Amino acid sequence: MTTTKIPTAAKAPSAKPQPRQETKIQEVHRGIALLPKNKPILVVIPYCSQGAQGREIEYAVAGWRKHFKENFLIVLAGEDHPVTKTGDDICCIESPRVPGKEGQYRQHLDYVSCFRKVRQAFPDQDGFIFVADDCYAVNDFDLADVQTLKISGESLLNFDLNSDNPWRRDVAKTRELLLREGYPTRNYTTHLPQWFEWRKLEELWRRYDMDNESYVFETLYYNIYCGDRKPFWKLNFATDHFKCVVNRSDIDTIAPGNNVTGLELLKRATEGWKLWIQNTVDGWSPLLDQFLAQYYGI
Question: Are 119 and 202 in contact (CB under 8 A)?
Fold first, then answer.
């Protein structure tokens, strides 16, 4: 029988130094920890080294520390990483990958497994922020920015249920389920931080057997629980302040549709234009690595 010690949370920076409040985190058996009454916001980042590129996770953590103006605790869910030893504002909840299942997208089943273990470790929390390991904050933000409803499109693309691509297959399954039950089919897959309430998420797990059936969980969640609300933002690179996406490795060249290089766009993003920078698999490069390392000073 083991006991897991969960570190204290980071405090958001303030204009004047505040007296430190000493709190103790109670430890109980079987790896379940109870947080003090001034509970931090959980920031859950699923992590698997097999799919990670370079120092993405280090820059992601640095972004939360530099720019999130709330009381928070980062939880790396999945594999551990040396970054979890760099402060009291971060910990790891280990969650081995689930076995692959024919016809199911393994990553989405992994998410459910990771989230269940986080829920067990923090049973007194009402909700949490979910974010990927390749999303980097570059300007100050708070919980309101995370909770603002955002969509990538007014409807999900009509992919083939029998597609060889597991992601597309899950999009098709999710779309079919939403249509069958009379819900909207907006695309809430934004690759930005999103807020989830445990009670609602656990209800979806039970209702749709999501330990065994994979779906695009964020799109399922928001269409069901926020279906009668008009999202405040449809993401638009040219007009919104949310994210700058890096999807090419040659960011030292002129960006398509612009008259400046990709590096110049990233520099502008850090100067108040965007809250987050996010890269695709093809967008990771030594140039982006160097840019982020210089920006965060790590």
Answer: yes
